[in-house]
Amino acid sequence: MTGRRGGRPLVPAYLSTGGVARPSRNSLERLSVLTGGGGPEPAGLPAAQHALLDVLDGGSLTVVETAALLELPVSAVRVLAAELIDQGLVSARPPIPVAALPAPDLLKRVADGLRALKQ
Amino acid sequence: MPFSRSPLKVHQMIEIPDLAAGGLAAGTLSAFVLAGGLLSSRRRGARQQEEVAGLRSQVDAARAETGGVSRAYAAEVSHLAQRRVPAEATRAAHPHVQVPGPLHPDLAGTELGAGLDGVLDGVAAAVAQERKRVDAAARAGMRGATREIQAGLYRLQDQLRGLQQRYDDPELAQTLFALDHENEQSLRRAQVTAVVCGAWVGLAREESHLVDAVTGGQSRLVGYHRVRIHNHLETGTALVSHAVEPVAIIVAELLDNALRHSAPDTEVVVNLERAHHGVSVTIDDAGVGMSPDERAYAQRMVAGTEPILLSELGDPPRMGLAAIGQLTRQFDLSVDLSSPSPYGGVRAVLLVKNHLLSRIDPAQRPPAAAAPRSTRTAAEQPVPEAVPLAPEPVAAYDTGAISHEPAPDGDALPQRRRRARAALPAETAAAPARTPEESAAALGALQSGTAAARSAAPTEGNEPR
């Protein structure tokens, strides 16, 4: 059992945001990283926002990963995340530009160097 | 009297003195005799004439009477043809129509009266039969058309959801959401019409969380913003596969009724609660409520005990209650509308019996993100055996939750690692075997469903007259 829902979803995506697809902020991209506040969840949050906080669970995930886990379109997650950011329950940082990623090779050499220093 | 005098003259010529007296006496005697005879014959003639006259008048009277009776017959038959038969035919569709009685009230109980009533009974039976036949034909036609429409709308839904996944431009997404919602509503209409016409619900679903079915039903309505769902069930309470779509349809129709009959600024409250015999879905609105007549009508429709005729659903046809009736009958669900809501409106209670319920491990398959969470706190939730809770709830989402973990010790680079589902003991992945009771309940449901469909078949009106 893969755990993935088979067939047609019973609950359409628009229900998660109450039909809203325009986020309150436009800063979120697919690869923006969301970080849960980790604090207690306030009562009265809409179910989908609760679910998003559950998925983050104080850790960090990109928008697109969150969408995959919640089985929602990215557009819906952007709306949910934007609302949570507005309430201070989630923080977001822009995606790391691809060009700025260090090469794994380099990291490996640095790690080897550090280990060599330690010994 | 010439013939009585002639014998007297003959005697006078032979011996006048002797014979005179005797002759006279004899003559007088015979005259008397003759006169007597004459008188009696006259009297008899008169009597006969009287009798004849009497008989003639009787015959006249009888003839007059016969004429009157046949005129009455003709009037009665034409009254039957012009008034009573049309009224009887109308009454098949409108039970409040009164069928007039015979012209002569004293006809009741006679042979003629019984004959005429027999005509009416025959007409009523023929009209009822014909109505059923026409209705069955109409339903078959509608069924074919709605099935095509429904299939087309599902294809459209697939396309729309594909687009939603692919494009996340807010403006486009907004349009796609609106289209998806419109599509859901059309789909609901087509599906309900098909169900009323005796079709299958049109979509096979897998075992799903009950709260998902209810939320799915909610999403099919225009006023879904006004619906508040309170989920008091254990997490993981689910519906067996064949009950998912019927429950979603019934909830959607009950909610539609509630939204339609309450003010736009009021909420419709849904409570999901565990009952002894199953799970109850209670829908309360704060609307105007129903009159006792409406309540009785609605209760009769949702009970699903009587066959439904399309022509009885009004114009525009009120499909919702009829569809609920069909589904409750087919799937052994029960809907009750008999008690008023404490909010003043209508309270509808859908009871899903235990044999239609199952359990889904929420860690394996969580409910939809938009489905309201259970109000039960974790402490109240019975922890399912043999499923050790994952150390962190994130692991509930098993499709590859990624976390930042520190490198174990020294050797490798810090890596983002999938939370491994494989870390769980192997037996937890195996679906729990069905208990004999569950198997029996499933087979029983199949059997009762088959029996219900068979008993429903003769109502189609195809039987020969």
TrEMBL record, chain A:
PANTHER family: DUF742 DOMAIN-CONTAINING PROTEIN. This is DUF742 domain-containing protein.
